[in-house]
C-alpha cells in the first residue's frame, strides 16, 4: 500500500520559459499531506493555482493553468516528473508566468527530486480505478481508457514526415520505467511551424538546447536522438503530466493515438463526467512505492 509523498527538502530551479522567453526562478517546497500540487505566483501577490483540470485556462502548445488573474504555463513536464515519481503534495513557487523548460524533457526535474529525496507521509493514497471503457475521438486523434490491473499507456503518433514513420510504444508506468524510458524524452516541433509560433508571441525561449527541431531533411539538433522513438515517448511524458490534473493516480490502460494537450484535457473532463465508469479506491498494493523507486535507480 502506497502512502502520500512530498520532498525531503526544497529544490531550486532557474531556467528559461519556452514561450515567454523570460528567466524564471522556481522553488519546489515540501507540503503537508492532502495539499496536492499547488503553484504559487510570488510575483502576483502569491496567488495559488491548483494543479487541477478545473484550473486549465488553455492548451495552446502547452498546458496552461490560471486562477484569479495569475497564470502558470507549460506545467506538463514538471507535473509528469512529479507523477512519475509519486510526489503527491508540493508547493511550486515561481516568479514568472511559466515553468522553466530546461532541456525540454522531465529529466532535470527528475534528477533534482531524486537528489533531495522523497518523504513518505502518514496517509494512504487513493486512485481512480477504471471500471468501463471511455473513448473520445476528434478527427484522426483518439484517446481511450480501459480497465487494467496497473497503470499502462499505449501511444502512437504519425506526422507524415518522409524521414519519420509511425512510432508506437506501450509501457507500464512505474517509477523505474518513467526515469529510464520516459523522463529523458524531449519536446519537439517542426521548423515549418516555428515562424508561425513566434508571430503569435510563442516559443520566444525556444532553441535547439530545449527542443528537438525537425526540418525537411531531418533533425537540426547536433547529436543523436536519445531514443529512436523519442517523439512518441515525449507524447507519453505529456500524457502522464496532463492526466495528473485529475488529482489521483489512474489505475487503467490509456490508449492514445496522436494525443495532444487539448484532447487530453477534453478527455479528462469527459472521464470525470462518466462517474459510472470509475471508482475511487485505496491505492492497489502492486503500484510501485517511492522507496522502490529510490532503491532501483
Shape, principal axes of CA atoms? globular
- Domain tally: 2
**Secondary structure tally, helices:** 7
- Annotated CATH homologous superfamily of the largest domain: lpxc deacetylase, domain 2
Fold-level CATH name of the largest domain:
lpxc deacetylase, domain 1
State the separation between the terminal residues, measured CA to CA: 21 Å
- Cross-sheet strand order for the largest sheet: 2-3-9-4-5
Average per-residue pLDDT, rounded, comes to 93
Low-confidence spans: pLDDT under 50, at least 5 residues? Answer: none
Q: Characterize the main sheet.
A: 5 strands, mixed
- The helix/strand order is EEEEEEEEHEHEEEEEEHEHEEHEEHEH
Number of DSSP-assigned strands: 21
| Radius of gyration from the alpha-carbon trace, in angstroms | 18 Å
* Percent range of helical residues: 10-25%
Judging by the overall fold, what is the CATH architecture of the largest domain? 2-Layer Sandwich
Give the class from helix and strand content and strand pairing. alpha+beta
Overall CATH class of the largest domain: Alpha Beta
Strand percentage, roughly?
A: 25-35%
Amino acid at each position: 500500500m502506497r502512502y502520500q509523498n512530498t520532498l525531503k527538502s526544497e529544490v531550486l530551479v532557474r531556467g528559461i520559459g519556452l514561450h515567454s522567453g523570460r528567466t524564471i526562478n522556481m522553488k519546489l517546497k515540501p507540503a503537508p499531506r492532502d495539499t496536492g500540487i499547488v503553484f504559487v505566483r510570488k510575483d502576483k501577490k502569491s496567488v495559488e493555482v491548483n494543479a487541477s483540470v478545473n484550473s486549465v485556462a488553455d492548451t495552446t502548445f502547452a498546458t496552461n493553468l490560471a486562477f484569479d488573474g495569475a497564470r502558470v504555463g507549460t506545467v506538463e513536464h514538471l507535473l509528469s516528473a512529479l507523477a512519475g515519481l509519486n510526489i503527491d503534495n508540493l508547493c511550486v513557487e515561481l516568479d514568472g508566468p511559466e515553468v522553466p523548460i530546461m532541456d525540454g524533457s522531465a529529466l532535470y526535474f527528475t534528477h533534482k527530486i531524486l537528489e533531495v529525496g522523497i518523504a513518505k507521509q502518514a496517509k494512504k493514497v487513493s486512485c481512480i480505478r477504471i471500471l468501463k471503457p471511455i473513448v473520445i475521438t476528434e478527427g484522426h486523434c483518439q484517446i481511450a481508457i480501459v480497465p487494467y490491473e496497473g497503470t499502462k499507456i499505449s501511444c502512437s503518433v504519425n506526422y507524415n514526415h518522409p524521414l519519420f514513420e509511425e512510432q508506437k510504444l506501450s509501457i507500464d508506468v512505474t517509477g523505474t520505467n518513467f526515469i529510464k524510458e520516459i523522463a529523458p524524452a524531449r519536446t519537439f516541433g517542426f521548423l515549418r511551424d516555428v515562424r508561425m509560433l513566434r508571430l503569435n508571441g510563442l516559443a520566444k525561449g525556444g532553441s535547439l538546447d530545449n527542443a528537438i527541431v525537425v526540418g525537411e531533411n531531418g533533425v537540426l539538433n547536433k547529436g543523436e536522438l536519445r531514443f529512436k522513438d523519442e517523439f512518441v515517448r515525449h507524447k507519453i511524458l505529456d500524457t502522464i503530466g496532463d492526466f495528473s490534473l485529475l488529482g489521483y493516480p489512474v489505475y487503467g490502460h490509456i490508449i492514445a493515438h496522436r494525443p495532444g494537450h487539448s484532447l487530453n484535457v477534453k478527455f479528462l473532463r469527459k472521464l470525470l463526467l462518466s462517474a459510472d465508469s470509475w471508482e475511487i479506491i485505496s491505492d492497489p498494493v502492486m503500484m510501485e512505492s517511492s522507496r522502490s523507486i529510490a532503491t532501483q535507480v
